[in-house]
Amino acid sequence: MSKSHSIDEKVIEEFFKQFDFPFSNYFQQVVPTLIEKNRVYQATKKDLETNPKFKDFFNTFRADSIPDFIHKIASEKARNVVNGNVLEKLQTSRILDPKIRAEEGLWEIQQKKMFSMQCLWRAEKIEIPEIKVSWDFQYWEQNIKECPFLEPITEDEVDLYISYILTDDYTFHFDPFSSLQDYVGFKDEYMNSDESGYMPEWYSFYDIRKGTGSLLILPNIRGEKEQVYLDEFNKHEKKIEKVTAALKPPQPKRLDYYQIMEFVMEFMEENEDELTNYYFKETSSYYEVYKKKQELGVDMDDYDYENPMDGEAREALSQLEYTPFKIPIAAYYDWKQGIVNALYKYETQQVADAMKLVFEDYNMRKEMGIPFENTEVYEGHIKSWEKNLNTWRDRILEGRELLGEPRDFDF
Q1: Which of 28, 111, 176, 404 is in the most buried spot, having the most CB atoms within 10 Å?
Q2: Predicted TM-score of the model (pTM)
Q3: Which of 49, 86, 54 is nearest to 71 (CA)?
Q4: How far is it, in rounded angstroms, from Cα 213 to Cα 202?
Q5: How is the chain split into domains, by residue range?
């Protein structure tokens, strides 16, 4: 939501106080927009209903059709005031998105360098003063822009990444939920020839050209040492839990998601009207699919969507429609795939072109000592990861104490 339509922070604070349960960061960001949207809607609706200047206009139509008309006008105004010019934003995003993805590419370069260091550190081939336990790499993955032990990005590395962008293996849509330092997962895939493609394509591309793939063959000496202490800590915790549980009265079982949904469905059917039930079931379609597939004995992971290319082609067309350039479509035996390929080629070339620009900005910031910007929710996010890091370290230290060893990381 733009600053010009922002809500007073005290209003938002008072709004959240009326609930006795916490809201996620996502909802805390979304709620102000919804409140502003509702404010515009209600004000517009009231004006249309009470302002005398609209009376003559409404008198030319049937009275029972006016409320729907007012609702539509108020809804559109609220949406436009809050969201702005949607078409303009779509056109602008054609220019902004490649730059954003190129910036993410810079940090993928650093992630790969850090992962290679993790392999060497775990094999006790190198020491990194800032790294005490293996979980530290997970923390610095999240805080990559401030990582102190990585060498600055070089022009050769950027050129290599650009070469990767222009391959068929490049992933345009960056997945913010995937881990780029998942040593255990990547090593398991590498050692077992897993073809699931779990490891980032950029890492494979880099390894082939730099000859660094063999780093995953190195032994996980440090990780195995840590596991001894973690196992001892967990064994001790289980003993405590067992004693504690024996002193507590039996606790009721916890409902899982689908059991909760089932009870909610039953409650809705018994207590709500037909229309409300219809809306609820429409928004709970995944639950219905889940139950049906359970009855048929089909694994949810095997769900096969019909004609996925139809959706991809439709999405590609919708994006190409707002592209401010003419995009050539190469001949292809399947015209739908040809459209998808055309969008992919256009988007990847845009990102490749943007890499040089974001690299110039990167160098300028390094030279002038300007910190790299993070998202608004970054501070809260990184504090959460720092807490996880300290928890992981404490467990290893306690495990060492339980085994009669010093409470330090010299092992």
Answers
A1: 111
A2: 0.62
A3: 49
A4: 12
A5: 3-84, 99-227+338-402, 251-336
